[in-house]
Amino acid sequence: MKEALYYQAEKDGAVRCTLCPHQCLLSDEQFGICGVRQNINGRLYSLVYEKVIARHSDPIEKKPLFHVHPGSTSFSVATMGCNFKCRFCQNHEISQVRRSNNRQISGEIFTASDVVQTARQIGCKTIACTYTEPTIYYEYAFDIARLAQKAGLQTVWISNGYISAAPLEEIAPFLAAANIDLKAWDDNFYRRQVGGDLQSVLQTLASLKRLGVWLEVTTLVIPGVTDSEEQMRSIAEFIRDELGPETPWHLSRFYPHFAYTHLLPTREETLHSAREIGLQSGLRYVYSGNVPGDPGEHTFCYQCGEQVIQRYGFHVLENRLVKGCCPKCSTPIDGIGM
Predict the structure, then answer these.
(1) What is the mean pLDDT of residues 98-112?
(2) 3-state class (DSSP) for residue 198
């Protein structure tokens, strides 16, 4: 356990967690919505500090981050817990924590120093806080990011974007990049199917852009739920106008999971149509995800249309960039370490 960084004392031994927009008011022994932060005798504690449930060396493309050191590996870590309750979650076994008073949270002790040391030993360019939601293990992620920066490594943040302004401002100087899920352009969907609100996520995206963190956005295209042309166009226009046309947009194919097993996988034609909407809206880089072999996995020069990076799934097959520029017309391709 570690005392939390963002909370305030309330009356009668209660505490209010201020880490995310839920602003959970917790009486003694009560857990937050995330299931891993608890009021213990009038103090808020993280129950997952340096308690890893998953760690692995992944291709950076798996995050997905296609414009951050393409073809490199990222040492990825996660603890249990999440501040969303997505009914379609692909990692629900570790993200959805059953709250109980015994405070037993699965995982093994793996310190922030261990994370950085391991990443350096195996030659990763980045460390990724991913798999579940890094906001709920903020103290651990923050320590990792600070130590990584000192060691010459970059930290990337794979998140649902549901975090309060103050903690985001504090950790941003230690983040090189973030991929944020923009799950839908529908606040009703966010409230009923996710357990949050759309406006808070949009605010996080705008803040990360302002704070100078490289941004990529992912939208899971769920058949009959989030796949309408209106929603796709609204998301594309928000990215273009508020985040910039250089911001990559990943359109991820849905597969049945958790409480959404009654739906079929997204049709490839639907992904192609959504990708075309993004490109027509003026976005430079729009990708089709979870469809290995699809042409939408590749990076193209937005000026001349030349294919500059060829991918299959999470793997780079060919990188034709010359000092980060298109080999045909010399246009710089946006990103980090391109």
Answers:
(1) 74
(2) helix
**At CA 84, angle to CA 2 and CA 251, rounded to 5?**
125
Report d(CA 92, CA 242) in Å as an integer. 31
122 CB-side CA count, 13 A: 18
- Residue range 244-255: mean pLDDT, rounded: 96
73 and 161 share one domain: yes
Closest to 215 (Cα-Cα) out of 169, 161, 272, 253: 161
Query: Per-residue DSSP letters for 6-30?
Result: SEEE-GGG-EEE-SSTT--EE-TTP
Pair 178, 305 in one domain: yes
Strand, coil or helix: 256: coil
Question: At a CB cut-off of 8 Å and minimum separation 6, what does 98 contact?
Answer: 35
The residue written with tokens 């090189």 in the block is 176
3-state secondary structure of 268: helix
Contact by Cβ (8 Å): 172, 157: no
Alpha-carbon span 145 to 140, nearest angstrom: 9
Percent of the chain scored above 70 by pLDDT?
98
Beta carbons within 10 angstroms of residue 228's beta carbon: 15
pLDDT of residue 101 exceeding 70, the answer is: no
Query: What CATH number has the domain bearing residue 149?
Result: 3.20.20.70
Cα–Cα nearest to 63, from 287, 187, 218: 218
Encode pLDDT of 187-243 as tens digits.
Answer: 999 999 999 999 999 999 999 999 999 999 999 999 999 999 999 999 999 999 999
Tell me the pTM.
0.95
CA distance 144 to 111: 9
Expressed as residue numbers, the domain containing 265 is 51-319
Size of the chain in residues? 338
User: Does residue 338 lie in a domain region?
Assistant: no
The answer to whether residue 137 scores a pLDDT higher than 90 is yes
Q: Per-residue pLDDT for 98 more than 70?
A: no
The structural domain count of the chain equals: 2
**Within this chain, do residues 58 and 112 fall inside the same structural domain, yes or no?**
yes
Pairing of strands 51-52, 108-109: antiparallel
